[in-house]
Amino acid sequence: MKEAVVGRHGTGAARGPSPDPAVAAVRVAVRRALAGLPVDGPVLVACSGGADSLALAAATAFVTSRLGRPAGLVTVDHGLQAGSAGRAAAVAEWAARVGFDPVEAVPVTVAGRPGGPEAAARQARYQGLSNAARRHRASAVLLGHTRDDQAETVLLALARGAGPRGLAGMPARRDLAGVPLLRPLLDVTRAQTRDACAALGLTPWQDPHNTDPSYARARVRADALPALVAALGDGVVDNLARTARLLAADTAALDDLATAALGTPQPRPDGVGLPVRDGGGLSVVALAGLPGAVRSRVLHAWARELGAPPGALSHRHVDALDALVTAWRGQGPTALPGGVRVARRDGRLLPVDLGGPAAVR
Question: Which DSSP letter does residue 204 get?
Fold first, then answer.
């Protein structure tokens, strides 16, 4: 990876008196993402050395130098390819040269984790980033996912029959070990990040996994999405990403309603506002009175409270809980991941011991 053209602030700067349009687009996206963040810790950029995260890193170094706030960089070595440690070291060396501090190359272990290879690598990567964020008391961690990545995520969610939460794609912001995890580039295209790297004299690493057809995302990137663009026009990527934004807003509103329903409002004389929680369980009557989209979220959240692992909890489990409310035929307890069982008893949904009696009514 070649070093960027070094400007007055020790980071990549576009040639000429004004930045290249792609460079400017990435910098504006980063500046917007950092607005309002606390300054009591460094912003950490997760950088693989690919075009997206490299353009993000260069823009972050530029923007934070002007904002007077610290910025660090973490590159994760998954150990899945020959020479991966050397590539991580090269990214770290470049980051130190352009002024990032702290800089860390974090090795992670992918083998032995649940799920397929993509899921296992993602889990290992986020664990490495989470640990780094805690070590350095980061104010935020930045990821380089682009609008194209978002469109691919929506297509993958459609293919597996995901509900609104899956179709909402990747959030622009979520929590990672108590630290904001930000995706500033969700409105920036992959072509713009490549153009930004070219304008800054940076040579990105080309990850062979991105073109390996054994990975579902690589197949979507190489075949499915280009076929849709060819059939339906260039607006497909933007429309898929916009769909994710709209569904994310709807999902957030429904989640808020579910959170409120799981509270304990005082019922009014007309019966409206009947508390969902009833002792150690949930009231069947109150659940039945909720809209289906809210009820399913209440049941999902409650199942997590009982100890069902979120990654293993699927729509089938929630549907089985819902059947205890809406399709009650005297069926026995519903088994959830993590050894949790829920039964209907005396007008309530209750967790039951593995050896306990079956619930009735």
Answer: -
